[in-house]
Design a protein that fits this description.
The complex is a heterodimer of chains A (218) and B (244). Chain A is mainly α. Helices cover 82% and strands 0% of the residues of chain A. Chain A has a single domain, classed as Orthogonal Bundle (MetI-like fold). Chain A contains eight helices and no strands. Chain B has helices at 44-51, 75-82, 98-109, 114-127, 143-155, 173-188, 200-206, 224-229, 234-243; strands spanning 4-15, 18-29, 33-37, 59-64, 67-68, 83-86, 161-165, 192-196, 209-214, 217-222. The longest helix of chain B is centred in the last third of the chain and has 16 residues, at 173-188. By secondary structure, chain B is an alpha/beta fold. In chain B, helix 3 crosses helix 4 (114-127), helix 4 crosses helix 5 (143-155) and helix 5 (143-155) runs parallel beside helix 6 (173-188). In chain B, the strands form two sheets. In chain B, strands 6-7-8-3-9-10 form a six-stranded mixed beta sheet, sandwiched between helices. A four-stranded antiparallel beta sheet of chain B has the order 2-1-4-5, with helices on one face. The radius of gyration of chain B is 18 Å and the shape is globular. The chains are: A mainly alpha (218), B alpha/beta (244). Chain A binds chain B through residues 113, 115-116, 118-126, 129, 133-134, 137-138, 141, 215-218, and chain B through 52, 54, 77, 80-81, 83-85, 87, 89, 91-95, 104-105, 108-109, 137, 139-140, 150, 153-154, 157.
């Protein structure tokens, strides 16, 4: 039965935004922790750690996100774990974000002038203090814009979780479209909602970048 | 406590196949002020950077204040606490104020409480004659002021030895003097100093010994009067002729 596109349908789609947001937040926070570990390993002294991190990045940057979602989703079953779309999507997107953020932050860490590390070493600061107080704060300034840019990519990337049956924004749209068959209206609404999520982030990135620059050069 | 601040024995350093330091033997007494000069690529910066192991060495031994750098353990960390370094490009932390630059290492490495670290920092900023800049960011200061902050930052760790790696080379001519004056003050207070510099006025004024390096070798070393007045090695004579 094809029925009319009603306000209840819009409400259904809008309320699915929260799952897109939850998935994005989990993947971003997980990816931030994983990405920091990857970036630190990539810039570490030890060759083995650098190689392992590089391999991890290559694998996740060199395969489609959709395949990563499939592999994790069906991999859960192979491992005897319950097949849960949210868990699978969260794990896959976290790994994906770890690889990309790791690479972005590696670049930012390496862009901090070597003299900064030398001065910190000469002051006998430990690796931890050097990173925490000297290198990472400066790398963060360089990484802010590309990080928020990636977050926008990540939010849009969560739409792929619809394919493994997780009811986030895109899947909610599909469900309503199947019932109402108003694809242009339905997916236009869905796209507009993604835009509402992503656009302010792009503005925020630009604002943060400008403010950071001001704080340094003044 | 040994009477020698630094003892280097048969130190060799390579960059790949390039032999940057060749069998360096150097003994520095406590309170001694040494100026190291030589053409670029002669190994003079590399030499002082081995003393706090910013550059690891391939062979030989370095003993700083009775602690053998090459013996492993936490010796390198201990030596770095007692050896301050000033760089050609200042290397201040641009995201921190002058005061924060000065208190970071004492608070983190020496575990000194903030209030005490700040008091010490203000004292040294006074000594380098820029106490009023404490709350500014490095980018707001002139090159000469930044280098004086860098000196104060190193002094805040209360080092027993100070290394200067071409501290005035990146400065505009009118700012060289203010940095040299600060270094002269420090020398007069009895700090053990090793300075890589081409400022021969400075060498004449404060150095106990001037060392000339070429191709990774210490070619000649002498008291300033003899070094400048009666250079023996031909390469040194050429060098002095070029920079005079």
């Amino acid at each position: 039965m094809i029925r009319e596109f009603s306000s209840a349908d819009i409400l259904f789609i809008v309320s699915a935004v929260r799952w897109t947001l939850i998935l994005s937040v989990i993947a971003f926070l997980g990816g931030a922790i994983g990405g920091l570990a990857v970036a630190l390993a990539r810039t570490a002294q030890g060759r083995l750690r650098r190689r392992i991190a590089a391999g991890f990045i290559q694998v996740f940057q060199g395969t489609p996100l959709l395949m990563q979602l499939f592999l994790v989703y069906f991999g859960l079953a192979v491992l005897g774990l319950p097949i849960d779309p949210l868990l699978a999507a969260a794990v896959a997107l976290t790994l994906h974000a770890s690889a990309y953020l790791g690479e972005i932050w590696r670049g930012a860490i390496e862009a901090v002038p070597p003299g900064q590390t030398e001065a910190a070493v000469a002051l006998s600061l430990s690796y931890r203090d050097r990173m925490r107080h000297v290198v990472l704060p400066q790398a963060m300034r360089l990484a802010t814009a590309p990080t928020v840019g990636f977050l926008v990519q990540l939010i849009k990337g969560t739409s792929l979780a619809s394919i493994i049956g997780f009811t986030e924004l895109t899947r909610a749209g599909q469900i309503i479209n199947n019932a109402t068959f108003k694809p242009f209206l339905v997916f236009g609404t869905v796209a507009a909602l993604y835009f509402v999520l992503c656009w302010p982030l792009s503005l925020l990135a630009r604002h943060m970048e400008a403010r950071m620059r001001l704080a340094i050069t003044r | 406590m040994t009477e020698h601040a630094i003892i280097m024995r048969a130190v060799n350093k390579y960059y790949g196949a390039y032999h940057a330091l060749v069998d360096i033997d150097l003994t520095v007494s406590r309170g001694e002020r040494i100026v190291i000069c030589g053409p670029s690529g002669s190994g003079k910066s590399t030499l002082i950077r081995t003393i706090n192991q910013l550059e690891p060495i391939e062979s030989g031994t370095i003993v700083v204040d009775g602690v053998e750098l090459t013996a492993g353990g936490d010796n390198v960390a201990r030596v770095r606490q007692d050896v301050g370094m000033v760089f050609q490009s200042f290397n201040l932390f641009p995201h921190m104020t002058v005061l924060e630059n000065c208190v970071l290492a004492p608070m983190k490495t020496r575990k000194i409480p903030r209030a005490e670290a700040e008091a010490t920092a203000r004292k040294y900023l006074e000594r380098v004659r820029i106490p009023e800049q404490a709350d500014k960011y490095p980018a707001q200061l002139s090159g000469g002021q930044q280098q004086r902050v860098a000196i104060a930052r190193a002094l805040c760790m209360k080092p027993r030895i100070m290394l200067f790696d071409e501290p005035t080379s990146a400065l505009d001519p009118e700012m060289v003097k203010e940095v040299l004056d600060t270094m002269i003050d420090l020398a007069r207070e009895g700090m053990t100093m090793l300075c890589v510099t081409h400022e021969m006025e400075f060498a004449r004024a404060v150095a106990d010994r001037v060392i000339f390096m070429d191709k990774g070798v210490i070619v000649e070393e002498n008291a300033p009067a003899e070094f400048f007045g009666n250079p023996k090695n031909e390469r040194l004579q050429n060098f002095l002729g070029q920079i005079a």
